[in-house]
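job 3f2a | input accepted
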Amino acid sequence: MPTHKFIVIDDDSNGHPLDLFCVPKHYEDDLECILVPAGLINDRIERLARDILRDFSHEAIVALCVLKGGYKFFTDLLDKIKTLNRNNEESVPMSVDFIRLKSYVNDASGSKIEVIGGDNLENLCGKNVLVVEDIIDTGKTMTKLLDLLNHVNPKCVKVASLLVKRTPLGIGYRPDYIGFEVPNKFVVGYALDYNEYFRDLNHICVINENGKKKYAVKK
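job 3f2a | predicted structure (219 res):
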């Protein structure tokens, strides 16, 4: 269970109108609303960085990025940690590694979860691992990764996820650090994609039906 507070966005939240923020022209007809503006994301990540540094104290961390969606959150989180390291009396040594997980086809979670790039996880033996993910949906993908990590005997594993989605399909898994808890809607932006589109959107937005149809995988 998470040990820190997080921001909860209610199910009845209508988000923010698109015309109050800057959205790429090519996505204007494909989005329902802005759920989390970029500025709020940035500030929340800074607080997560502070919590992580406080918990690990001066012990070294291996930050494990879950690609592809996690790369933006990973980069921004590590930038915040590096800034805090420069300005605090105590700092945390940090190295990075990467893994890719595949579980989505269109807007449905696939029945098969594919783990890519896990060949070098043995290097994590005896180390403090911080897994950095963009979103926890059902929790099945993350529990699969954690099982894989536990086989290489790390010193400890903690998970930071920018988003956790409330879904009836969830298995009850909760990461250690949560940015925002969001409704059961398909969200895109801030590197979260819909069939590889919308990663270039700064805000976290709810995709509409027009967007799903336009960018659906052609069979």
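job 3f2a | The chain has a mean pLDDT of 89.
job 3f2a | closed
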